[in-house]
């Protein structure tokens, strides 16, 4: 019990787990939600990731890397959850019937992008989200994925090329505007 209490009390050796996790909670939820696409599942993933991180916290040598360390734990937890559930997303038919024709045409491009992103491998989706949604640098991403910066750059480039190619095929699917 002394060990648990020491993780929540400020110490001379560095910040506490509680103070570090408070700074990350909103970002963690957004990342989890981007993976599982459901509020309750996202909360479950964050909770499981925080528990795993809490157990491993004494092994973290440098608190300066807490954010990247925690993000990696969260991503792994989210991917494991997706594998476990083999999640299928159902559409709410009534909600879609209420949209006007104009809104439907405007949203086709958004649907195309969402569809393309769904077909990406989890690691490819992670690369795009971390770079363009959360603003991680290539260096930070390399630390999170434990890969060289050059590898991250080439994977990001290939993923963007794949997304671009699939989006360019969209006109053939729906007809030219």
TrEMBL record:
Record's superkingdom? Answer: Bacteria
- InterPro entries according to UniProt: RNA_pol_sigma-70-like, RNA_pol_sigma-70_dom, RNA_pol_sigma70_r2, RNA_pol_sigma70_r4_t2, RNA_pol_sigma_r2, RNA_pol_sigma_r3/r4-like, WH-like_DNA-bd_sf
Q: Name one Pfam family in it.
A: Sigma70_r2
Q: Where is the RNA polymerase sigma-70 region domain?
A: 20-87
Q: Which UniProt keywords apply?
A: Sigma factor, Transcription, Transcription regulation
| Domain (RNA polymerase sigma factor 70 region 4 type): residue spans on this chain | 112-162
CDD domains attached here? Sigma70_r4 (cd06171)
Matching Gene3D superfamilies, A to Z? 1.10.1740.10, Winged helix-like DNA-binding domain superfamily/Winged helix DNA-binding domain (1.10.10.10)
Q: Which family does it belong to?
A: Belongs to the sigma-70 factor family. ECF subfamily.
Please report the name of this protein according to its UniProt entry: RNA polymerase
Question: Source species, please?
Answer: Sutcliffiella horikoshii
């Amino acid at each position: 019990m002394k060990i648990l209490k020491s993780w929540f009390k400020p110490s001379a050796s560095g910040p506490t787990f509680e103070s570090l996790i408070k700074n990350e909670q909103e970002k963690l939820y957004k990342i989890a939600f981007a993976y599982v696409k459901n509020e309750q599942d996202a909360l479950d993933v964050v909770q499981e990731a925080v528990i795993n991180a809490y157990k491993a916290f004494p092994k973290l040598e440098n608190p300066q890397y807490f954010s990247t360390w925690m993000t990696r734990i969260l991503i792994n937890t989210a991917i494991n959850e997706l594998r476990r559930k083999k999640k299928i997303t159902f559409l709410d038919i009534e909600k879609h019937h209420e949209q006007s024709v104009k809104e439907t045409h405007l949203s086709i491009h958004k649907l195309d992008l969402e569809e393309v992103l769904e077909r990406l491998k989890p690691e490819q989706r992670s690369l795009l989200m971390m770079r363009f949604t959360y603003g991680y640098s290539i260096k930070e991403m390399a630390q999170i994925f434990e890969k060289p910066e050059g590898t991250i750059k080439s994977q990001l480039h290939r993923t963007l090329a794949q997304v671009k190619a699939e989006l360019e095929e969209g006109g053939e699917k729906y007809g030219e505007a």
